[in-house]
Amino acid sequence: MIVTVTANPSLDRLVALGEPLRLGAVQRAQRAAADPGGKGVNVSRVVHTSGAATVAVLPADHGDPLLIALDQIGVPSVAVPVGQEIRNNITVTEPDGTTTKLNAPGAQLTPETVRSFEDAIVTAAEGASWLALCGSLPPGLPNDWYARLVARIGNGPRIAVDTSGAALAASAVRGVHLLKPNAEELAVLVGGGERAGAEFESRAAAGDPGPVRIAAEKLHRETGAEVLATLGRAGAVLVTADGAWWAGPPPIVVRSTVGAGDSSLAGYLIAHDRGATPPQRLTLAVAYGAAAAALPGTQAPRPEELDVAAVRITAC
Fold first, then answer.
1. Catalytic residues
2. Pair 54, 150: CB distance under 8 Å
3. How far is residue 141's CA from residue 111's CA, in Å, rounded to a whole number?
4. What is the pLDDT of residues 224-271, one digit of tens each?
């Protein structure tokens, strides 16, 4: 069982354009859709599509459109009432894969809601193989909330964290088993900045994942966590106690990058639960991320849409 936590869920609305976005203009969309979203929700959707067991824990009122959407696709959820409708996020995609995302602020969580939410997470995590703490934190939660959950869970399931900014920095602690930063987030965690993150991606795309490996190894030494660093078109680097590997994605036409990192995390967790080796886990993570990027919006890739054989993996 892979349990996901999404503290700041959303209903993700997609607008797919047939031409480049023109600011200030009126344009017609080729396609529009609405999907249940938030990073943990996205992970659960991919895990569910793979046929593995999952449950998404999130704050949302009974009857919220987000919960209705999850019910419609069969993803099990545990919802804690929050007293207001969950936010709507808007994603605009262009034919060349350029993605513009407009995220609304999340629902304010009261102290009572936070306590109920934490209790629901602890209960859902009992007997789980993984607890994935995913996404941004809404108003009412401190930056170290994930770290507090890690301490409260203790010797329960393995814990993965996929967040950003101050919440990520506060979550890079002992007790976390997997950290999944992107290039920019990894650079900031080890004392760099946005320019260092861009260099990570460009160097890896040119065939040199060395700087990413060095940074990920530093983070691994400081936290004890495995590090899955996703690099967009340049694939991903994995560092564990057993070594380091870099995997390049199969060739695809990018349609939307939203949710690709979430799919990569889901692929890694699925592979881990199947007893896969670290290189095999990285391979499936990159295959899932690429398959998601080839789909419009935040669709969950199906196993038959993966091109695992085309993932190129090497020790680094």
1. 262
2. no
3. 9
4. 999 999 999 999 999 999 999 999 999 999 888 888 999 999 999 999
